[in-house]
TrEMBL record:
Species for this entry: Pseudoduganella lurida
Phylogenetic lineage: Bacteria, Pseudomonadati, Pseudomonadota, Betaproteobacteria, Burkholderiales
InterPro entries documented for this protein: Acyl_CoA_acyltransferase, Aminoglycoside_N6-AcTrfrase, Bact_Acetyltransf, GNAT_dom
UniProt KW Cell membrane keyword: no
Residues in N-acetyltransferase domain copies: 1-147
CDD domains (alphabetical): NAT_SF
Name of protein: Aminoglycoside N(6')-acetyltransferase type 1
Length: 147
């Protein structure tokens, strides 16, 4: 297994991994987001965990966020936008390796903080963050009102 950067929207398994993590997003929207990310490498990074036979085992995406990120002290902050490991390959350190790659990318872009989020009921993700040295900063509830 190795961690490789995604270099094209046709990257083996990238779209499928995205669809597994964000099933409510239409394929066309995924592809548009992937194009945007590939077109702005100073702001976005994306990595695949790839088996030696080329099979995709997971992915991570990160971005430099210029707006304020809850609980952080610097700008820009690197943010883990997406992280997913194929179910049968979980708990083998792949998520950890993907985050390590994101950290290397963030440091190379001058960041001193890496931020992330997890849904309140995603205790596995919260546990993984804690085990990788993330500290919990805030719990928030989003609202909206049609106006
Ligand atoms: C969260 C996720 C990416 C973790 O990937 P992974 O490759 O299994 O993670 P790792 O093997 O690197 O685990 C690192 C540590 O996280 C913690 N952890 C991971 N899975 C866990 C679980 N099911 N229960 C408890 N702790 C867990 C452990 O401390 C683990 O270290 P250990 O195995 O030495 O005890 C994976 O479970 C996943 O894709 N989940 C669905 C998508 C998702 O929730 N993504 C995150 C969105 S914020």
């Amino acid at each position: 297994m190795r961690i490789i950067p995604c270099t094209s929207i046709g990257q083996e398994g990238w779209l499928a991994c995205r669809q597994a993590l964000w099933p409510d997003t239409m394929a066309g929207e995924h592809l548009a987001e992937m194009r945007t990310a590939l077109g702005d490498p100073d702001r976005y990074a994306q990595f695949m965990a790839s088996a030696t036979n080329g099979r995709a085992l997971g992915f991570a995406e990160a971005a430099l966020r210029m707006d304020y990120v809850n609980g952080t002290d610097s700008t820009p902050v690197a943010f883990v936008e997406g992280l997913y490991v194929t179910p049968e390959y979980r708990r083998q350190g792949i998520g950890t390796l993907l985050i390590v790659e994101v950290i290397l990318w963030a440091r190379a872009h001058g960041c001193t903080e890496l931020a992330s989020d997890a849904l309140l009921d995603n205790e596995v993700s919260q546990e993984m963050h804690r085990s990788l040295g993330f500290e919990e900063t805030e719990r928030v509830v989003f609202f909206r009102k049609l106006i």
